[in-house]
Specification:
By secondary structure, this protein is mainly beta. It contains five helices and 25 strands.
Length: 379
């Protein structure tokens, strides 16, 4: 009888513990990352709960329901670079110094921001009488919410960049596990492209074979379900034509033809899980029309025009940026950003509070998270 009561009490105690943990989890998962970092210091139990893989996944899924956009601005006099959300919230990323400057953001996924950093290393010359500035690049992954930074190992093109060597980057995110791969294409004029890939699983770079034409810039690639896409240009019968280079998670290369109407123009995007091209054309002075094409069959390069519409907001400035994300398109000028909802065909306009003359980088979709910068989370 005593053994039965003992087992019953133990079972009842375990149920109460599970109920308390479930209630606490449901409360904490609704908090922003900034508050969770404070909650981690309450006690060891809270810290272990917040740092658990299951909690990180739950919190990320909830945050993905409310995504935002981030940009880099140049208004700080002491070169501190900021990520600014469309709703006006500003987060300091990294203070600058004489040896450090922010080159640019490549992309963002699950709260991690991938950046190209530009550095200058001062070394003495042979006669020890003068200093020579040696420039080099690095790829950093940053979590703005947790302030964590991770620097990838260098490659030959990162250590010794020069005017004759060009580099283009792209990031692939696995659709189900929290891992990523970074692709770097570097080439010298009149020489074949070379490609290296970094895996967060192995923590190292390796060469892979690639025959690649001229790629678009790094900040214009897009990743959908683990496959990375770039716009490419090549010469056909004496004319420049465009196509898309694709690399899947298994590092297989393929090419996709794009609609003839949009051979040399367009921005790639992820439109509700499908590869898309958005093309903006100026019909009349400062009157813009845009077309949205969606890839229906990648093997046969079949595209369907999803819709065409006109930019309804009034602007006297040229449209500088177009960003496609899930079910909306962001158009940016030097004074404002405007978001177009594809389902409702409605607009939401954001004016910059800092005035028209400050510089801003390409907007990038962003969702805050607790994920570490060096790769996935333990099972």
């Amino acid at each position: 009888m005593n053994d039965f009561r003992s087992r019953e009490c133990k079972h009842s105690h375990q149920n109460k513990v599970f109920e308390v943990e479930e209630t606490l989890t449901n409360i904490l998962v609704k908090l922003p990352v900034k508050s969770l970092l404070i909650c981690k210091s309450v006690c060891k139990y809270w810290k272990s709960l917040i740092c658990s893989p299951s909690f990180m996944r739950m919190h990320l899924i909830r945050c993905q329901e409310n995504p935002s956009y981030i940009v880099r601005n140049y208004r700080s006099a002491n070169h501190i670079h900021l990520l600014t959300k469309i709703d006006g919230e500003t987060t300091q990323i990294h203070p600058s110094s004489n040896r450090f400057s922010f080159k640019g953001m490549i992309c963002s996924f699950n709260g991690l921001v991938f950046c190209i950093e530009h550095h200058t290393r001062h070394v003495c010359t042979c006669d020890q009488m003068a200093l020579c500035g040696m420039e080099y690049l690095s790829i950093t992954i940053r979590n703005p919410a947790t302030q964590q930074v991770f620097i990838l190992p260098s490659t030959p093109a990162l250590k010794c960049p020069n005017h004759n060597t060009l580099s283009t980057f792209g990031v692939s995110f696995h659709p189900t596990i929290y891992e990523y791969k970074v692709f770097q294409f570097f080439f010298k004029r009149r020489q074949p492209h070379k490609c290296m890939v970094y895996s967060s699983i192995t923590g190292s770079w390796k060469f892979i074979s690639a025959t690649v034409e001229h790629l678009d810039s790094s900040d214009k690639h897009v990743c959908i379900n683990g496959t990375v896409y770039w716009l490419c240009k090549s010469v056909l019968d004496g004319w420049w034509v465009g196509h898309i280079l694709a690399i899947d998670w298994e590092e297989n290369f393929s090419t996709i033809r794009i609609p003839k109407e949009e051979t040399m123009n367009g921005v790639l995007g992820n439109l509700e899980g499908c590869l898309s091209i958005v093309v903006v054309a100026e019909d009349r002075p400062l009157e813009y029309r845009f077309d949205i094409w969606v890839l229906e069959d990648s093997k046969k390069s079949i595209w369907v025009k999803k819709l065409s519409d006109y930019v309804s907001f009034s602007t006297r400035d040229q449209i500088l940026w177009v960003v496609v994300e899930v079910n909306e398109i962001l158009f940016g000028t030097k004074k404002q950003y405007s978001i177009y909802n594809i389902h409702t065909r409605s607009w939401k306009v954001f004016d910059w509070a800092y005035g028209p003359y400050w510089g801003f980088s390409l907007p990038i979709a962003y969702t805050e998270s607790l994920l570490p910068c060096n790769g996935g989370i333990d099972s």
